[in-house]
Amino acid sequence: MQSQNKNAVAALTGSIGTGKTVVLDYFRDNLGFKTVSADAIGHEVLQKPEIIDKVVKTFGEGVLKNGGIDRAALGKIVFSDKAALLRLNELTHPAILKQTFEIINELSQKSPVILEAAILIEAGWHKYFDTVMLVYCKPEIQLYRLMTRDGISREEAEKKIGSQMSFEAKKPFATYLIDTSFGIEVTKITLEKIAADLINRDVFS
Description:
single chain, alpha/beta, Rossmann fold, two-stranded antiparallel sheet, 9 helices, 14% strand, disordered N terminus
């Protein structure tokens, strides 16, 4: 995606439980990049009254809790029904995309920016970026991480992973592949090489 100034933007994606957040944090804390999380922006969007109203009208009062969206209840619906997930995306993606690009354009006035978005490719947002980094890990490690992080069963973890596009389907859209199977101490070598390559190729100039 081309910003409204000299600094370009790269995107980072990957399925749930693959280590995107750890990778994003390393780019921010150790390599000097500004970072933006589409997931965090999505949480903010779900708190907007107009979005809450649309979601409740679509999925029922069961997703409402204390005047806001019960993300756990909503997640149980959309992660087990691809049609429901598509409806949710149609309701929220325009607002998320708008807010995301507003933040990116502001940050990139001074620094290069990396956007992290789990559904970057599914949503078609990859078309806005010249550089796409795809995070992945071994399937069993992904399952273990997700089960441990969310305190859920293997069946629930498999259902969440299955609701997203597979690594093999995403792979053709990637500029860089980042394997996190062996932890950040190994992965950081790849990240540092990618960062140097991006800067040397003048991606951010």
